[in-house]
Amino acid sequence: MLSELCKLSFEQIKDIASKTIGQSQNVKWCLYRKFRSTSSNFHKVIKSVKNNRYPNSLYKGLLGKYFVEGVKSIEWGKTHENIAIEEFEKANNCNVTKTGIWLHESGFLGASPDGLLFDDNSSYCIEVKCLYRFRNEDLKINLSNSNDYIINFDTNKNDFVLNSNHQYYDQIQGQMHMTKMSSAILIMWTT
């Protein structure tokens, strides 16, 4: 049976994550990611199941049929992700470990966190979002009581709060599940 042939041990999963560092720049990462449902698509799948609607765009996304090279926001993220991590490391006196794709034991699911952080008692998935949409703007103003982004700024609490209905939330939950980590750090970077 196919499901039995695809099963992976946690040692195999860690080995694959190690061999696929560099993500889209690594041929092995591209090969291991192909034909798997990855955490970047989890929100679309969850939403489709809840609504009992499965549009063609869902299948195109799951099969990697969308061409994203040249999309400004994606290029912006690729260009600035390492800068965001470096600034985070300096600000928090820590070292983020690069990683590749983490597969589920079933072999059918995957997730590619932007890094991992290990400190004395905890470990964290790191996800970086370089905010092209807000690249030259004040986040507090633009995210004040907004519901359409991964975080919003709650003026009553005078703090940023997480939006658990956003697609990035499901992506990060998937990353935590695949890596077996119970915590994550979301780095929001802008100019």
From TrEMBL:
<dbReference type="Pfam" id="PF09588">
    <property type="entry name" value="YqaJ"/>
</dbReference>
<dbReference type="InterPro" id="IPR051703">
    <property type="entry name" value="NF-kappa-B_Signaling_Reg"/>
</dbReference>
<feature type="domain" description="YqaJ viral recombinase">
    <location>
        <begin position="28"/>
        <end position="181"/>
    </location>
</feature>
<dbReference type="InterPro" id="IPR019080">
    <property type="entry name" value="YqaJ_viral_recombinase"/>
</dbReference>
<dbReference type="GO" id="GO:0006281">
    <property type="term" value="P:DNA repair"/>
</dbReference>
<dbReference type="InterPro" id="IPR011604">
    <property type="entry name" value="PDDEXK-like_dom_sf"/>
</dbReference>
<dbReference type="InterPro" id="IPR011335">
    <property type="entry name" value="Restrct_endonuc-II-like"/>
</dbReference>
<protein>
    <recommendedName>
        <fullName>YqaJ viral recombinase domain-containing protein</fullName>
    </recommendedName>
</protein>
